[in-house]
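--- STAGE predict ---
source: upstream dedup step, 1 unique chain passed
mode: sequence only
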Amino acid sequence: MDLKIKKNIQISNKKAHFLYDIQKKYVAGIVLNGTEVKAIRMSSVSINEAFCYFKKSELYVKNMNISEYKFGTYLNHKPNRERKLLLNKKELKALENKIKERGFTIIPIELKMSETGFVKLEIGLAQGKKVFDKRQSIKEKDNKRELDRLKKRF
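--- STAGE serialize ---
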């Protein structure tokens, strides 16, 4: 068998910090079905296209692709189904009020496995960046890379 199960799982959305200015971060639990946890342990997850939305005062994540578990049977899960996120009522109300403002959205930043074995999704209240902000981010990244090269040389 070709099983590659990872102990520490950290799957991140690399585009999130480039496309959005993240105002505040939250760590939410996520409701998963049977084989989804096994698939996450095998790191077959993509959160790059995912986004969060409210439905009846509950927060859901959509387009988070958890590939089907290789050794699953007919009870395997659907890869792109919407999944419920678990937060406190206070946090949910604060997020829902902030979302009603123009330009704010909730995006997944990182998927982690806690020490107790629970899957957690770090989400961020984000505001979209303008084109000039993105250019500034690219400049800062290039400058940092150049400084690191110079430090390494000397």
